[in-house]
TrEMBL record:
<keyword id="KW-0547">Nucleotide-binding</keyword>
<dbReference type="InterPro" id="IPR027256">
    <property type="entry name" value="P-typ_ATPase_IB"/>
</dbReference>
<dbReference type="InterPro" id="IPR044492">
    <property type="entry name" value="P_typ_ATPase_HD_dom"/>
</dbReference>
<dbReference type="InterPro" id="IPR059000">
    <property type="entry name" value="ATPase_P-type_domA"/>
</dbReference>
<dbReference type="InterPro" id="IPR001757">
    <property type="entry name" value="P_typ_ATPase"/>
</dbReference>
<keyword id="KW-0460">Magnesium</keyword>
<dbReference type="InterPro" id="IPR021993">
    <property type="entry name" value="ATPase-cat-bd"/>
</dbReference>
<dbReference type="InterPro" id="IPR006121">
    <property type="entry name" value="HMA_dom"/>
</dbReference>
<keyword id="KW-1003">Cell membrane</keyword>
<dbReference type="InterPro" id="IPR023214">
    <property type="entry name" value="HAD_sf"/>
</dbReference>
<dbReference type="Pfam" id="PF00122">
    <property type="entry name" value="E1-E2_ATPase"/>
</dbReference>
<feature type="transmembrane region" description="Helical">
    <location>
        <begin position="424"/>
        <end position="445"/>
    </location>
</feature>
<feature type="transmembrane region" description="Helical">
    <location>
        <begin position="211"/>
        <end position="232"/>
    </location>
</feature>
<dbReference type="Pfam" id="PF12156">
    <property type="entry name" value="ATPase-cat_bd"/>
</dbReference>
<dbReference type="InterPro" id="IPR036163">
    <property type="entry name" value="HMA_dom_sf"/>
</dbReference>
<dbReference type="InterPro" id="IPR018303">
    <property type="entry name" value="ATPase_P-typ_P_site"/>
</dbReference>
<feature type="transmembrane region" description="Helical">
    <location>
        <begin position="179"/>
        <end position="199"/>
    </location>
</feature>
């Protein structure tokens, strides 16, 4: 029976035996082209392509020339849907970058890639070993960016949780293998060294001494080549672009020690230091491994989030369920979600009701009740009911994907203190090399037999690894801690600015109040609809809006109701076409301004939360109810206790604001403000205060941009649009206390890290130059310094 190619499904020529291991099973290929393409799909962690494809791929022969360009396959739009977010002409992706060892590596990648035409922005997080890159697809392709990263000695792939975990396991195994080989050989070299030491006092024959030296040189060679390989690659990558990294002095020290010893062995003149170079290479590897484990622990949060995305989804087609790949879901698809299943996409519930666990987004373990018309998010878990949702966002645009992108962006951006330390570290490496040269010159004149060892100690002991790790590890741990508490940091300056805030400005609706409006009373005026019909039409129109008032109509949402040409007027209301008639719903002031004459309009209409027009004719007024948040008063009390002021800036009418002011202790309040009015009040307050603006994130973007710091309440669909620096995903006001506490603690820990890093180098440099520190202690001190900084930062996770 003729076999078919697994890739393109064409017959395999008789006698040809080509295959690719896919999902732990050897699959036959019909030609070298198909084999190359299939292997690329496997190597890039995209084997799900075969699991969910609907038809065989094109024959691979035509792709062989493109295969010469290593990552060309990743330019395929069908594959990019899974890991790329597109905003207009700009594409954005998170990359997993292998071989990053320190902050200098991150700087090197940022510097080189940012110079490419078409790359708008790239930020690299050395702690998580991930990069966020934005580019113009018309000017440069993803494959070209990945190839450029490869060219400077690093390897990058689109970030997927499975790939990240696999790469971490590979790195961990590689570290352990290097440690194992180096440790075993080091012990052998040390045993030979003992023989050489004793031989120096017992007249060992020159033949035996030479034999032991040669044995030491051979045994230590794998240690300084294979074991120390990561240090060499880091140093070479930096020197290629005329940059000094922390690996440069370490590599020079190892190379000099071994070369000098090998020369002494070959010429039979001078001393050998094989045991020493073996030992401090082994100790350096231990330090690197412990640092890797600590950084890996801090980097797991977004990888764990991405694992929540399901692979498959059940869509309803012609009334029948059909299983497809979740990444193939399209807008408006109807998806069935059974009890216990993970929701595969953001959407609105069109049928059914259930309890949904949203702990992965908000940190709140208590399930949230969801009914028809409510929004659900990808990655959350359905509880006890069958629900059907209408997809509103593709996977790459889902709330969870946005959350991961924002998390990576926040961790990658460096505050001014971190940028300063990076610059200092670069100059410090140059200073180390200069001081090492001075040390070698001095001691070669005064004590030649000790010059080499003392110079070696200077090179190793003063390596500024701790200095470069001081800020990135603390910020990564702090961001991870806040994410677990349902707080998303979007801007780099938050940790620095938050402790300086002395005036808290609040929006009212959705901030100090719950924003969970309910309909209190509906007044109809010659309406051609019943009350229920009207509310159903309004619910369909408001489904396109993310304003808190829109939530009040969700219980009346009916997926069978048809409306057209929905238009959202920011800060005012909604327009839609219903049965060829124009329906307008919005604030009373905005609506009444559109009516030719407002004479005879009742007080109820003027004070109503919503007024409804049909073809410019008043047909209804609706009064809504809202409640003050339970945690609002305790938060305001804590703010006053710390000596800060409070300010209310609301667009609501005076009566609505008065109800809040009567129950909450607010120093100053202003009502009926437009966005422009809020800006004016905020800027006036900034003359004497550092101001944070707290709002619901909807229509507050201009005000947010004006404040020293801005905080938005949890508003899932709005997360990508608002300009807030912080988003309270858990929708809890008292999370601001957690934010302040973590910010203060982070600032303190960063200062501790710098104090230790600068203090250690200030003490150890003169001691090393004076000859009081041996290379063994130099390695232990340098490694311990880095591990101490990382461990101190990890305290933020507790």
């Amino acid at each position: 029976m003729t076999k078919s190619c697994f890739h393109c499904n064409e017959p395999i020529p008789h006698g040809l035996e080509l295959s690719v291991n896919i999902n732990e099973s050897s699959q036959p290929m019909c030609c070298i082209g198909c084999q190359a393409v299939a292997q690329t799909i496997v190597d890039n962690g995209l084997v799900d392509y075969y699991k969910f494809r609907t038809e065989p791929a094109n024959k691979g022969e035509i792709l062989v020339p493109d295969q010469l360009s290593k990552h060309k396959l990743l330019d395929d739009d069908a594959l990019q849907n899974e890991f790329i977010h597109q905003d207009g002409d700009t594409k954005e992706s998170i990359l997993t970058v292998d071989n990053i060892s320190c902050a200098a590596c991150a700087w090197l990648i940022e510097m080189k890639i940012s110079q490419l035409t078409g790359v708008k922005q790239i930020t690299v997080n050395a702690t998580t070993q991930r990069a966020t890159v934005k580019w113009l697809d018309e000017e440069i392709k993803l494959s070209e960016i990945l190839a450029a990263i490869d060219a400077i000695g690093y390897h990058a792939l689109p970030f997927k949780a499975s790939i990240a975990e696999e790469l971490n396991q590979q790195q961990s195994k590689s570290f352990i293998k290097r440690l194992g080989i180096s440790g075993i050989l080091m012990m052998q070299v040390m045993m030979i060294a003992i023989g050489l030491y004793f031989g120096a006092f017992s007249d060992m024959s020159s033949h035996n001494e030479n034999y032991l030296r040669w044995a030491s040189m051979i045994l230590s060679f794998p240690i300084i080549s294979y074991g120390a390989y990561p240090f060499y690659t880091g140093a070479i990558n930096a020197l290629k672009v005329r940059r000094l990294s922390m690996d440069v002095p370490v590599s020079i020290a190892i190379t000099l020690a071994y070369t000098a010893s090998a020369w002494a062995t070959v010429t039979r003149q001078g001393e050998v230091y094989f045991e020493s170079v073996s030992m401090f290479t082994f100790l350096l590897l231990i330090g690197k491994f412990l640092e890797f484990r600590a950084r890996n622990r801090a980097a797991q949060v977004s990888a764990n989030l991405l694992k929540l995305m399901p692979l498959s989804a059940t869509i309803i087609e012609d009334g029948h369920p059909k299983l497809i790949a979740a990444k193939k879901l399209q807008l408006q698809d109807s998806v069935l979600i059974k009890p216990g299943e993970t929701i595969p996409a953001d959407g609105l519930i069109s049928h059914g009701q259930s309890q949904v666990n949203e702990a992965m987004l908000s940190g709140e373990q208590k399930p949230v009740s969801k009914i028809q018309g409510d929004k659900v998010f990808a990655g959350t878990i359905n509880g006890d009911g069958n629900i059907t949702i209408s997809v509103t966002s593709l996977m790459s645009d889902s709330f969870l994907s946005q959350l991961i992108r924002l998390s990576e962006s926040a961790q990658s951006h460096k505050p001014q203190l971190a940028k300063f330390s990076d610059r200092i570290a670069q100059y410090f490496v140059a200073l180390i090399l200069v001081m090492a040269s001075i040390t070698a010159l001095y001691w070669s004149q005064h004590m030649p037999e000790e010059a080499f060892w003392i110079t070696l100690s200077v090179l190793v002991a003063t390596c500024p690894c701790a200095l470069s790790l001081a800020t990135p590890t603390a910020l990564t741990c702090a961001t991870t801690k806040l994410n677990r508490s349902g707080i998303m940091i979007k801007s780099a300056h938050v940790m620095e600015t938050m402790p300086q805030i002395d005036l808290y400005a609040f929006d009212k609706t959705g901030t100090l109040t719950t924003g969970q409006f309910t309909i209190d009373h509906v007044e109809l005026y010659d309406a051609p609809f019943t009350k229920k019909e009207l509310l159903t039409y309004i619910a369909s129109a408001e489904a396109y809006s993310e304003h808190p008032i829109a939530q009040a109509f969700h219980p009346y949402f009916d997926s069978n109701t048809r409306i057209n040409d929905v238009e959202i007027i920011a800060g005012c209301g909604v327009k839609a076409i219903i049965n060829n008639q124009t329906l307008v719903v919005g604030k009373s002031k905005w609506i009444l301004d559109q009516i030719a004459s407002s004479e005879g309009i009742s007080t109820f209409v003027k004070n109503a939360a919503c007024v409804v027009l049909l073809d410019n004719k008043l047909i209804a007024a609706i009064q809504l109810k809202d409640t003050i948040r339970e945690d609002a008063q305790p938060l305001l009390a804590r703010i006053k206790k710390q000596g800060a002021k409070t300010l209310l800036l609301s667009g609501d009418n005076q009566e609505g604001c008065r109800q809040v002011i009567d129950k909450l202790s607010i120093d100053e309040a202003h009502s009926q403000l437009s966005a422009k009015d809020k800006m004016s009040k905020l800027k006036a307050a900034q003359q004497n205060h550092n101001v944070v603006m707290v709002g619901d994130g909807i229509n507050d973007t201009p005000v947010f941009s004006a404040a020293h710091l801005s905080i938005a309440m949890g508003s899932g669909a709005d997360i990508a649009k608002n300009g807030a620096d912080v988003i309270l995903l858990n929708n809890k006001l008292d999370s601001m206390t957690t934010l302040l506490n973590v910010a203060v603690k982070t600032k303190r820990i960063i200062r501790q890290n710098y104090a230790w890093a600068f203090g250690y180098n200030a003490i150890v440099l003169p001691l090393a130059m004076s000859g009081y520190i041996t290379p063994y202690f130099a390695v232990i001190g340098m490694s311990a310094s880095s591990i101490l900084v990382v461990t101190n930062s990890l305290r933020l996770l507790k």
